Structure formats: C-alpha cells, structure tokens
Automatic annotation (TrEMBL):
InterPro entries: Aminotransferase_I/II_large, DapL/ALD1, PyrdxlP-dep_Trfase, PyrdxlP-dep_Trfase_major, PyrdxlP-dep_Trfase_small
Presence of keyword Plastid: yes
Transmembrane segments: none
Keyword annotations: Aminotransferase, Plastid, Pyridoxal phosphate, Transferase
Biological processes, Gene Ontology terms: systemic acquired resistance, salicylic acid mediated signaling pathway
GO molecular-function terms, A-Z: pyridoxal phosphate binding; transaminase activity
Cofactor(s) the protein requires to work: pyridoxal 5'-phosphate
Family the entry assigns: Belongs to the class-I pyridoxal-phosphate-dependent aminotransferase family. LL-diaminopimelate aminotransferase subfamily.
Protein name as annotated: Aspartate aminotransferase
Keyword DNA repair: no
Annotated Aminotransferase class I/classII large domain residues: 35-405
Gene: MYN1_Chr_477
UniProt cross-references to PANTHER family, sorted A to Z: AMINOTRANSFERASE
C-alpha cells in the first residue's frame, strides 16, 4: 500500500465553495423551479473585454503561421507582458519594481499556495480571521499546521481577528511571526488598508525579518487613487513582501486564467545552514521545474488589458460591479442591516440582523429568497453571524435579489 499525505485529512471535509454548491444543489433537487440568484462565489459574469478577445484572436492566427508560431514560452512569462505590467501597475505609481521581478501565472490561488513549496514548515504563520480559505488550507496540506481544534482553529497558525470593532483591520501580533498573509482590498470583508496601516506591517516585517504575502487580487476595485494599490508603495516593502495580482476579477479572466506575482530580488530567507538565499532564485527554480507558463494566446489577451481600449473597458466592468455593490449596500442598509465593505471591493459583508448563525442566515436566504451568499463562518470563526454577498452578477439579478431580501425584513 502507498501512504498518502495525511495532512489532507486534517482539512475540513470540503473546500468552502464546493460545500456551498452542494447545499444549493440539494435545495434545487427539492425545489427544481426555484429561480436561484448566486451572489456566493466571486465569479465574474460580464463577457471578456473586446480588446482582449481581439488580441487573443490575432494571437491564434499568428500561431497558425510558421513565423508566428510559439512553443514553450519563457517560464516567467513573456518579457513584453512583464514590462507592460511593471510600468503600468508599479513604476507609474512610484514603485521600484522591474519586469524581472514579475512572474506570470495562471492564478493567484495557485501562486499563493505554491509559494509554500519554497518556504520551510518551521515558519510561524499568521492569517486574519476571517480569511480567504486558500491561505489556511494550503498550509494545512503542506504540513505547516497541526490539527484543527474543536473551535475550528488549526494548531500552529496565529489568527488575527478582524471584526467590526477593529474596522476589519488586524492588530499587529504581539509575538514574532515569520509569514503574514494580508489581503487588501479584503476578501471576504471588503475592508481596505490605508497607507499608514500597511506601513505598520512593513515596519513590523522589517523589524522581525518576516515575509508578508500580500494578496492584491482586488486592487482594481479601489475607488480612491490615494489609497495604496500595492504593498510596494510602502518604503521597505521590497525587502519583506511578495505581492499577488490577478486578471480574474479585473478583466473577467476567471475562466481565461492569467495572474502574476511580484517577487522582489531583495527578499531573502535563511537555509538550514544559516545562509541567506534569494526567494526569487528559489521561485524561478520552482516555476521552471513545475510550470510551463501561461499560453502565448492568453498572455496576449492580458497585455491588451493595458491598451487604451482595454483600460476603458475594464473601467466600465469595474464600475458596473461596484454599482452592484452600492445597490446591495444601500438596499440592505435601508432595512436596518449592518453592512461593511462594498466601497473598494466587490464584496459586501453583511451582519445578520436577528442574530442567526452564518449557515442559518445562508439557509434562510436560500430557502426564502432563493439567493445564495457565502456564510461568513466559512471564512473563519470571527466571520460567524455574517454573510458575504458578491457584486458579480447582472444588474437585474442584483436588484431582484435585493427586492426579495428586503421584502423579508
Ligand atoms: C471568492 O469567491 O472568494 C473567490 O472567487 C475565490 C477565488 O478567487 O478563488
């Protein structure tokens, strides 16, 4: 008999989103006529921007010619895409990030999980509570945690509560933590970080020799240009942070798949002999062994996001979803719910008005309004009593969902 990676058995039975789908399927089996509106998983609904489609079509035609054919691409991604990203997303905002420090990938979920390949299990790890479940589950799978407690916390992880009392902004840990996951704009609470908050984290990380894994997948939803869009807008972050970005939500790429990570060359870790090693070198080594890159066609599509036409189109997409978020916020506020997020993020974090648990709240809305949300407790203990509603849907569905919910309260 072969042995398995028993760390997987420490996991809760199902990943959050499939668990929700199963509940919805069970409900639909009993109510096949129910007109379900899904504001659960954050999956975009609007079509791909025309600029991206044209670029991908042209790339397909190129691939049909001898001169324009592309086989394996560079593991790190094509230089023209990395240069465009480095300039547009970083240098133009004053961040000293070069195209060499960018690695194109097929998703931030993969990047932030795969990053554990190059980090030792001896690191102490902090996550917020609630948190995007991938950070926790991938550490469990990698054997970086102990078992789950009856309270739902994994041994070996430090949980930093983010609640209405602290405006969903974690306090710095009292003790030294090696690896800290931060996500801004935040999934699931929709909270946003100010520059001074990120400065506190960068100073903490520099003081303790920690690494910040900064998930900025929702950066494009920030409505205020003065708020930091990247951790690298903070002095010193290049010595202590890695950033994850994605085109999934920004440009409707959830099904097309393209993202990138920024790994500054200055970041180092210590090996078992106590010598400094560049994280960039390890990641390059990992990617060139385990990853063959994103297709040429998709990278051309991603490049088109940065064209004038692409920028205009993604602004429209984002405005559309943010208007949905504003509708959710306003409508639920009218009936007396406590609502958070939704101003710089496509997620609205809703407190149950009558003290139900998250899963009861979820079931109630599913059964009575045929609206699917995501139970806050699925993101962590401190999310209990909340529901996350996603703004990714059509206007008519969002309005109908809000009419159904508000008429219940
Ligand atoms: C979410 O709903 O939290 C996201 O869609 C999950 C993801 O991007 O992987």
């Amino acid at each position: 008999m072969i042995s398995i990676n028993s760390n997987y058995q420490k996991l809760k039975a199902n990943y959050l989103f499939p668990a929700i789908n199963e509940r919805v399927r069970n409900f639909v089996d009993t109510q096949p006529k129910a007109d379900i509106i899904r504001l659960g998983i954050g999956d975009v609904t609007k079509p791909l921007p025309a600029a991206c489609r044209s670029a991908m079509k042209a790339a397909i035609d190129e691939m049909g010619t001898v001169e324009g054919f592309h086989g394996y691409g560079p593991e790190q991604g094509y230089g023209w895409l990395r240069e465009t990203i480095a300039y547009h997303d970083f240098q133009s905002r004053g961040c000293d990030i070069s195209s060499d420090e960018i690695f194109i990938s097929d998703g931030s979920k993969c990047d932030c999980s795969n990053m554990l390949d190059i980090l030792s299990k001896n690191n102490s790890i902090a996550v917020t509570d609630p948190v995007y479940p991938v950070y926790v589950d991938s550490n469990v799978m990698a054997g970086h945690t102990g078992d789950i407690s009856s309270e739902g916390y994994y041994e070996g992880l430090t949980y930093l509560p983010i609640t209405a009392d602290n405006n969903f902004i974690a306090s710095l840990p009292k003790k030294k933590i090696d690896i800290i996951y931060l996500c801004f704009p935040n999934n699931p609470t929709g909270a946003i970080a100010t520059k001074s908050h990120l400065e506190e984290w960068v100073n903490y990380a520099l003081k303790h020799g920690s690494l910040i894994l900064f998930d900025a997948a929702y950066e494009a939803f920030i409505q205020n240009p003065d708020l930091p869009h990247s951790i690298f807008e903070i002095n010193g972050a290049q010595q202590c942070a890695i950033e994850f970005r994605s085109f999934s939500k920004t440009a409707g790429f959830t099904g097309t798949r393209c993202a990138f990570s920024v790994i500054p060359k200055d970041i180092t870790g210590i090996n078992h002999e106590g010598n400094k090693v560049k994280i960039w070198d390890l990641w390059m080594r990992r990617q060139s062994t385990k990853f063959n890159g994103v297709s040429y066609i998709v990278q051309r599509g991603a490049e088109a996001i940065y064209s004038a036409e692409g920028q205009k189109e993604i602004k429209q997409l984002i405005n559309f979803y943010m208007t949905n978020a504003a509708i959710i916020y306003k409508e639920l506020e009218k009936v007396g719910f406590n609502i958070y997020g939704g101003q710089h993020a496509p997620y609205v974090w809703v407190k149950n008005p009558v003290g139900q648990t998250s899963w009861d709240f979820f079931d109630h809305l599913l059964k009575q309004a045929n609206v699917v949300g995501t139970p806050g407790s699925g993101f962590g203990k401190a999310g209990e009593g909340y529901l996350r509603l996603s703004a990714f849907n059509s206007r008519i569905n969002v309005e109908t969902a809000m009419n159904r919910i508000t008429s219940m309260y």
